[in-house]
């Protein structure tokens, strides 16, 4: 059975991909993120818009396509996310 | 002896609840996670509940000096703690806690107005016991998925608090026995077990960021 992922977990997966698993220095394309984060196009579009507006991702228009890179705020958020995931794990919960 | 143990228990409960509540709050501010928000409410409630009872004992010890704590204060503290235990259980998605029928919902609260504070205390102790057992079972079940040893310690902590609550209630059957002191010692051990894994979570270099809580 597929594992249920909370919105926070999906955001964590997207940010982790843009930090650790980039194809090249220009950033990740939407298609690449969809594949890596295992999420639908309509859902990832909304999440990416939110993450860019919050300053967690940087958007660049390279070679005619939108590419996404993690920002400094995004790195700090991801660090907090991992720490508090461990914290919530102790209570048997997902953040 | 019981008076001293009560003071230690309530002070430890206040401090442990406060520490975990603050950690949960920092987590909520940094990630905006609803789970951490529920844990914040849960542990601040537990902390306030213990503080209210501790204040009652201090007031009795230094001001009133009647020989026993005011039942109203004791009941108030227990009710606030029960709210905290409810939010821990609620975090594990209690789906059928409240009756679905509007009739039962409307009359469900009536018994609370028909009983004395002593009986209210017993009712809320019973509810706390059920919520704690539920939380302990759900937490230990999560160990199957994440193999996190901290979950075992938290489950043990919640289990000990539940067992302590049960013995505390059972000691009314055998007043003046050692049961009540044992129940408080078990509860203190439960609070310590609850705090151990949480104290090991690395929270260094995490700071508040007002922009992040809108996610």
UniProtKB/TrEMBL annotation, chain A:
Organism encoding this protein: uncultured marine thaumarchaeote KM3_70_D10
The protein's name: ArnR1-like winged helix-turn-helix domain-containing protein
The ArnR1-like winged helix-turn-helix domain, residue ranges: 5-86
UniProt xrefs under Pfam families: HTH_45
InterPro entries according to UniProt: ArnR1-like_HTH (IPR038723), WH-like_DNA-bd_sf (IPR036388), WH_DNA-bd_sf (IPR036390)
Gene3D superfamilies in alphabetical order: Winged helix-like DNA-binding domain superfamily/Winged helix DNA-binding domain
């Amino acid at each position: 059975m597929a594992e249920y992922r909370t919105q926070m977990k999906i955001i964590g997966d997207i940010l982790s991909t843009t930090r650790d698993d980039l194809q090249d220095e220009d950033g990740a394309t939407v298609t690449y993120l969809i594949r890596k984060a295992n999420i639908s196009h309509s859902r990832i579009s909304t999440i990416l818009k939110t993450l860019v507006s919050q300053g967690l991702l940087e958007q660049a228009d390279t070679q005619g396509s939108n590419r996404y890179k993690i920002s400094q705020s995004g790195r700090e958020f991801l660090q907090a996310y991992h720490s508090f995931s461990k914290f919530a794990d102790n209570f048997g919960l997902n953040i | 002896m019981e008076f001293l143990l009560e003071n230690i228990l309530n002070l430890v409960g206040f401090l442990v609840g406060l520490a975990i509540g603050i950690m949960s709050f920092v987590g909520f501010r940094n990630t905006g996670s609803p789970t951490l928000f529920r844990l914040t409410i849960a542990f601040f409630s537990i902390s306030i509940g213990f503080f209210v009872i501790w204040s009652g004992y201090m007031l009795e010890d230094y001001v009133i000096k009647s020989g026993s704590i005011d039942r109203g204060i004791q009941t108030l503290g227990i009710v606030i703690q029960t709210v905290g235990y409810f939010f821990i259980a609620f975090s594990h998605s209690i789906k059928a806690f409240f009756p679905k029928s509007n009739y039962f919902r409307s009359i469900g609260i009536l018994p609370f107005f028909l009983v004395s504070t002593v009986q209210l205390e017993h009712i809320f102790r019973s509810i706390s016991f059920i919520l704690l057992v539920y939380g302990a079972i759900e937490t230990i079940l999560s160990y199957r998925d994440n193999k996190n040893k901290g979950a075992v310690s938290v489950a043990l902590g919640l289990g000990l608090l539940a067992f302590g609550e049960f013995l505390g209630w059972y000691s009314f059957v055998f007043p003046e026995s050692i049961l009540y002191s044992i129940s408080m010692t078990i509860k203190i051990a439960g609070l310590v077990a609850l705090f151990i894994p949480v104290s090991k979570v690395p929270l260094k270099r995490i700071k508040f960021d007002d922009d992040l809580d809108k996610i």
